[in-house]
Amino acid sequence: MNSKHLSSTANSVIHQCSMKLHTSVDALLEEYKGVWKPEMGEYSRKLVEFCCSKAVRQGPACGEDDYISDSSFSRFTFDMMLAWQMPSSADEESYRESLGKEKEEKKSLVATQPHEDVSLFYSDIMPLLVDHGQGVKEDAFVWFATMLPLPGDVINGRFIFETLTASTANILHYPAYDRFLTEIAK
User: Fold this and answer.
1) Spatial separation of the C-alpha atoms in residues 148 and 155, rounded to whole Å
2) Helix runs in 21-117, H state only
3) What is the chain's alpha carbon radius of gyration, rounded to the nearest angstrom?
4) Number of DSSP helices (H) and strands (E) in the chain, helices first
5) CA 6 → CA 30, 43, 47, 48, 108, distances in Å?
């Protein structure tokens, strides 16, 4: 079951959570409706938090000591952060609009920059030319650290995030996150 009110990432993560918990999405939604109250805040984000926390508490299957270095674990947890960051379809639409505007701005900036005597690797436009895909922002990383202290705890989460994203304008991209988890597993 896909909810039209959730972003595509949030729908995917909730589906993955239900599979990990060996239950249906409908059963998860019913359980959530039983505990959610309007004063809790945004329905979509709280639903993502509810499902993700249940899935993370489930933990790895018995005998999976190296689950941290498993790429499916890193992708799943990265997607959790993306879903938390953009839980609703309205958030997703807003993101797509801003992405389109940003691409137009990049095109006009690149077209107006003189190319002579400027090394591409040392110019100010280099970050604009690299397309890293969707990334996680600091608040999503710190939220995730509250559920699974492995990649960072609340106190150190912001420092870890800043270190991981120093070269990417404070956006955590999947390859850096995957590498970080791989290094932790060693």
Assistant:
1) 13
2) 25-35, 43-58, 71-85, 89-112
3) 19
4) 9, 0
5) 16, 10, 9, 9, 33
Residue 19 identity (one-letter amino acid): M
What residue type is assigned to position 157 of the chain?
G
Stretch 4-9: mean pLDDT, rounded? Answer: 88
Q: How far apart are CA 76 and CA 17, in angstroms?
A: 9
Please check whether residue 51 is in contact with residue 13, taking contact to mean a CB–CB distance below 8 angstroms: yes
Give dist(CA 134, CA 140) in Å, integer: 13
Q: Give Cβ neighbours of residue 180 (< 8 Å, ≥ 6 apart).
A: 151, 164
Residue type, position 103, single letter: K
Burial (CB count within 10 angstroms: exposed 0-12, middle 13-18, buried 19+), residue 30: exposed
Residue 81, Cβ density class (10 Å: 0-12 exposed, 13-18 middle, ≥19 buried): buried
Mean per-residue pLDDT, 85-89: 90
pLDDT given for residue 25 in this prediction: 95
Query: What is the per-residue pLDDT for 137?
Result: 94
Q: Which residue has the higher pLDDT, 2 or 16?
A: 16
pLDDT (mean) for 91-115: 60
Asked whether 51 and 37 are in contact (CB, 8 A), the reply is no
Average pLDDT over every residue of 85-101: 75
